[in-house]
Each structure stands twice: as C-alpha cells, then as structure tokens.
C-alpha cells in the first residue's frame, strides 16, 4: 500500500503571484503556442501541397481513363480494357476520398489555429489591462 503524501500545514500558494497562477499558466501556454506554431504551419503547407498533387493525380487518372476508352473503341481487335478503366476509376475515387479527409483535417487545423490566436489575443489584452483570469475554462 502506498503511503500518502504528508499534509502541508498551510494550503499551497495560489493567485497571480504564485508560480502556478494564471500569469504563469498563460506564459507557459503562449510559449508552447510559439513553440508549436512553426510545426503547425509546416504541416499546413505540406497538407496543401499533398492536396494539390492529388488534384493533379486525379486529373491524370481521368485523362488516362478517357484515353483507354478511346483506344478501346478505336481498336479493330477487341481488347478488354474495361477492368483497367475500372481500376483507374477506383483509384480516382480513393484519391478523392483522401483529398476530402485532408481538406477536413486542414479546415479543423485552421479553425484551431484561429481559436488559439483569438484566445492568446484575449489573454494578452487581459494581462495588459491588469485583470485576473477566471479559474474556469477558456472562452469560446
């Protein structure tokens, strides 16, 4: 059985002057945000590049499928290219699906970044005004 920690003769410090006070938490949150911001921007840039390449890939798949259909129609000897066209269209469908997932993730990331920026600005304004933070959850 684990021993319980010794009780303190006084309550732990709290409030704006304490190390765990709102100002320290805000400073930590702002530092963490500044630390993560470059990674978030880089991720956003890479997601955007992947989305662009997927659009290009989808266009190339469409072009190839159209060309295969045209070749199939022009052939004097019957070649069955339908299975290949179906595979291409299935690949195109998967590319579109992944693109939609990436687009949704990028939109959520954009909203999160926007909300964090708003909250940071709100907290900075409160710090500059010299106000204390409520002990509840952040505003929405």
UniProtKB/TrEMBL annotation:
Give the transmembrane ranges. Answer: none
Q: Which UniProt keywords apply?
A: Coiled coil
Biased composition (Pro residues) is annotated at 1-16
Q: Does the keyword Coiled coil apply?
A: yes
Supply one GO CC term from the record. BORC complex
Question: Which portions of the sequence form the region Disordered?
Answer: 1-23
Q: Name one GO molecular function term.
A: SNARE binding
Coiled coil regions in record: 88-122
Any Pfam family hit: Snapin_Pallidin
Q: Name one GO biological process term.
A: endosome to lysosome transport
Task: Please give the family membership noted in the entry.
Answer: Belongs to the SNAPIN family.
Q: PANTHER family this protein is in?
A: SNARE-ASSOCIATED PROTEIN SNAPIN
The protein depicted here goes by the name Biogenesis of lysosome-related organelles complex 1 subunit 7
